[in-house]
Amino acid sequence: MEWFQAVVLGLIQGLTEFLPVSSSGHLTIFKAIFGIDADNLSFEVAVHAATVLSTIVAFRKEIWDIIGGVLKFKYNPQTEYFLKICVSMIPVFIVGVFFKDFVTDIFGSGLIIVGSMLVLTAVLLTLGETLSNRQARRAAVEGREPGREVGWWDALIIGIAQAFAVMPGLSRSGTTISTGLMLGVKKSSMAQFSFLMVLIPILGEAFLQLVGGDFSASSSGISALSLILGTLTAFISGYIACRWMIRIVQKARLRWFALYCLVAAAFCFIFESLA
After folding, report:
1. What is the SS3 assignment for 82?
2. Contact assessment for residue 174 and residue 198, using Cβ atoms and an 8 Å cutoff
3. What is the pLDDT of residues 167-215, one digit of tens each?
4. Euclidean distance between CA atoms 246 and 240, whole angstroms
5. Which of 14, 17, 45, 265 could cysteine-pair with 115, CB 3.0–4.6 Å?
6. What is the crossing angle of helices 60-70 and 77-98, to 10°?
7. Those residues with Cβ within 8 angstroms of residue 121's Cβ, 6 or more apart along the chain or in another chain
């Protein structure tokens, strides 16, 4: 992988991480376009960790508020929110521990899988918006605020949805946000919960690769310069994207993202058939 290719992939990761269009799917697409055969998770984990760090910077006030509440060692709203995030991490922890080899093989799959998962993402986004709008109309008739905060069972179900989103092309944010909307969670609350719930799992994976000696430029098949440039680009673009793209997720209609996913899926099928 050349350095400019790593920069492009880092840019794609940073921009697509916060939109429900699958960052891992787009990485697979652009690696196919560039003719990159690297199947190792090191580069993917590096750029994912970079965007997670950008999320921490963007949500630093909310994160400090949660940490401050937890450190009071009392059961308060911040502690409850943190525990719900922990509950949401259980399914992805199980997948990471018991199905790591399967996940590694998935990331080396072709564009047919990516295209199929993008279609599934489009379906989930459409269902999420449709049911959310229906619930909003019902709330308006009943004279109450639409949606609610994330509950305990919501956190677990959303966590299960996140575990399935290890499939490249199945958007993690799209899957979790759509699942939350279908459960009746507020769109604004669900967007924040979706971005915060992924922090520890991705940073944990990066840490395990680092201490295990699996995280290196050589293991990813790219130079150290390319790995560093790709990671820095993902962090910078991720921070910029997180500052304004989260507003798009909250306000824009999810069906437009669904339409984009269908177009991207069609590209995957056509590109694979011509390859």
Report:
1. helix
2. no
3. 888 888 889 999 999 999 987 788 889 888 888 777 766 666 665 555 5
4. 10
5. 265
6. 100
7. 20, 21, 22, 169, 170, 171, 174, 175, 258, 261
